[in-house]
Amino acid sequence: MEDHPLPSSEPASLDRRAELSEFLRTRRARLLPSDVGLPDFGRHRRVPGLRREELAQLAGVSVAYYTRLEQGNGRNVSAEVLDAIARALRLTDAEHAHLMHLAKGKQHKKKGSARPQQVRPSLAQLLAAMDGVPAYIVGRRSEILAWNPLAAAVFGDWGELPAAERNWARLTFLRPDYRELFVDWEQKAIDIVCQLRMDAGCYPDDPRLSALVGELSVKSEEFRRLWATHDVKEKSHGLKRMRHPLVGELSLNFESFRMPDDADQALVTYHAEPGSASADALRLLASWGTDATRVASGPEPRSAPRP
Fold first, then answer.
1. How far apart (Å, rounded) are the C-alpha atoms in residues 213 and 141?
2. Domain limits of the chain?
3. CB atoms within 10 A of CB 240
4. 252 near 239, Cβ under 8 Å?
5. Strand order in 144-147's β-sheet?
6. pLDDT score at 44
C-alpha cells in the first residue's frame, strides 16, 4: 500500500469518491481466486486478491463499468448492480449497507447529522433504574451521550470530562488508562474504527466526524493503521474482559440495542455470569458508585453530575 500524507485535523468533508474507491479495492484485494471458484495461476499475479476482470466476470458487468465504479464513480449505478458486486465480493450485511451509502450518495444520505443528539427523558430514567447493570447510550461518532452510575464505576466517571472528550474513539486511542482497562485493547480499537467507518459512509459531510478522524489520524499511529483497512462491521453483542483498577479482572457480556426512533443511538448494557467473581465485583462497584475509579486512583471523592 502506498504511503499517504497525514490528514489535517481541520474539519472537512470526507471524499465519498475516494472512500468508495478504497473500499472496493480493499474488499477485492482480500479475495483469492480459489475463494470464488476461479483458477489461480499463482506466483505471477501482479496484484493481491482478485483482478478487476475477475470481479467484473463474477458480478456480470463489463470490466469498464466496474473500473469506473472502483474509481469512485457510483453516481448512476443501480441497486441491482451493487447487489451483484456485493455478492461477488462476499460482503457482509454491514459491508453491503456501507457500499450502498458510498455509491448512491444523496439518494441514501441520512439527514440531521448536524443536530446534537438528545437522549429521551424516559430513556435516561431507564438508565438510572438499571441497578446492577452498567449501561450507557452511545451515538454518532462514538459519542457517549448518557450513562448510569454503575457504568461510571466500571469505565470511569465521564461526568468529570468535558463533553467533547466523552467519546469512545478519543478515550480508546488517546488515553493510556483505557489501553490498560481493556485486556484485548486491539479488538476494542478495531470495533471502534469499524463503527466510525459506517458513520462515515452515512455522513460523509459531517464536519465533526471528519475533524475526529483527522485528529485521531494525526495523534495515533494505531488509528491510522486501522482506518486504512476500510473494514466495517456492527458488533451487537459479545464479551469484554477488563482490568479494573479497584476490583481487578472483569469478564462482562455486552448487548447493544438500536433505538427504534433514532437508529444512530444505541443502548449498551453489560452483565456478569450469575455467581461469578465478576458478578461479585460488580456488586462491590455498585456499592462504591461513581467514586470507584477515584478510590482506585487516589483523588478525593465527590458527587458526579447526573448524565
1. 9
2. 16-108, 121-297
3. 18
4. yes
5. 144-147, 135-138, 262-271, 248-259, 237-244
6. 61
Segment 144-153, tens digit of pLDDT: 999 999 999 9
Mean per-residue pLDDT, 98-113: 67
Q: Which fold has domain 121-297?
A: Beta-Lactamase (3.30.450)
pTM of the model: 0.82
Taking only the tens place, the pLDDT of each residue in 259-289 is 988 889 999 999 999 999 999 999 999 987 6
Q: In CATH, what number does 16-108 get?
A: 1.10.260.40
Nine-digit cell string for 96: 453491503
149 within 8 A of 127, measured Cβ to Cβ: no
Residues 23-36: tens digit of each pLDDT: 999 999 998 877 77
Which residues does residue 241 pair with via DSSP β-bridges, in sequence order? 251
- Output the CA torsion sign for 160, 163, 167, 172: negative
| Residues in contact with 114: Cβ distance below 8 Å, sequence separation at least 6, in sequence order | 206
Neighbouring residues of 158: CB distance < 8 A, sequence distance ≥ 6 = 144, 147, 152, 166, 307
